[in-house]
Amino acid sequence: MIQGVFGPWDELLAKDRLFPMQSNKVMQSSLRPVELLVLQGTPFCNLNCHYCDLSATSRRSKQVMPFELIERLFCQLRDGRLLSAELTIVWHSGEPLTLPPEYYEEAISRLMRLAQEGGSGAPRLHFDFQTNGVLIDKAWCEFFARHRHHLDLGVSCDGPADLHDRHRTNWGGRGTHAQTVRGMDLLELHGIPYNIIAVVTADTLSQPDAFYEFFAKRRKQLTGFHFNVLANGEDGGEGVGYGADDRDRYFEFFRRLLTLSRREEGEDKLQIRNFSHTLGRILAAEGEDRPRYVAEGTAPLRQLNLDALGNVTTFYAGLSVDTLADLYGDGNGFGLGNLNQLSLSEMLSSDKLERMINDFAVSTRYCETNCDYFDVCTGGFEITKRLKHGRFDAGETIECATHVKTLIDAMIADISEHLEHVD
Fold it and tell me: Which residues pair with 34 in a beta bridge?
């Protein structure tokens, strides 16, 4: 066990608190075992998508995460008993397939060995790749097939060519739809299932039927489908971002997808995770023991990120140290520290982490007190509120209104209409 993992919380300074510092016992209970570990094998990407979270400079970098860095983090998590019994390791934040299959063969082998060295309490490891699909070839298909029992694959595709090619371009500005579809076809040829993530743009809102049908035709090969609305409505530029005036358009888009989905029957229907997960939250919202989705969704350590340079972040999967870089006075945003300079134990006993936990708790308390959608909210808007309102104890943003409130309203309207027809 790493000594002092949870740190001397009672001794940390309470300067500039938004509410009194929590007790050592409460602070320790805030931390969760790591369930999702995001590793940035490389920030480099072969595409230049208009809405990418990573900067163009970052996506040009060919930095590769050393195996020793992966091992260092995993061993500190393992020896500190900070790993969940089920651990998903995701390669993301850059195009993972720009590195050769041999890199991941070695990384997976090392991680499996280190997990087993932990003894009877070893976590069960599962691996996940999110790719733009352009570089998929026979060698990659063989790699995915070899690891099919402990690996999931996700492909990013925005639908038909006119939707996809508008924003998912290569560095020369040319569309990539044909290459992505070729990769998806190769996966199907080799019997490799995959899930889809599709970004919704202004053009998508105008073509819900074409958007839906494109993926529905491939539903037998898909393990799931998720449409993605940008986390920050101002990002992505014209045609991708959104504002308060677009709320009705999103409502109608969600309603149309629900209608199209209901027309299909049986196990082969396109499974839209946005809807199934939202329905689950609605059904679970009743009762005293209802889940606290907002608090659990951003519980510290539950989702942990390590970038190729050694920077460690938590709260959100894929969170970069560039976000609100100067908020805590060190130029590293929500970074806990760099693993090349600090141990994980030192990061977890830092004043900075305590301040971040405090800020997130302030945000949660405000929403719980003031928002009627709190019990069905996924959470994840703490940083957005700070960006838009300049404070954590703040209310609605267009992002939470679009992602959560409008989607909930559309689903409830759809359910009500369906029940009326049943009666």
Answer: 83
The answer to whether the pTM exceeds 0.70 is yes
Instruction: For residue 211, give every residue at least 6 positions away whose Cβ sits within 8 Å of its Cβ, in sequence order, or none.
Output: 159, 160, 163, 198, 204, 257
| DSSP code at position 173 | S
Closest CA to 96 of 67, 60, 135, 50: 135
List the domain range (segments joined by +) for residue 335. Answer: 32-419
Residue 18 resides in a domain: no
Confidence of residue 235 (pLDDT cuts 50, 70, 90): low
70 vs 62: CA distance, rounded Å = 17
What digits encode the pLDDT tens for the residues 311-348? 999 999 989 999 999 999 999 999 999 999 999 999 99
Query: What is the DSSP annotation of 122-151?
Result: PPEEEEEEEE-STT--HHHHHHHHHTGGGE
pLDDT computed for residue 11 by the predictor? 29
Number of domains into which the chain is organized = 1
C-alpha span between 76 and 82 (Å, rounded): 8
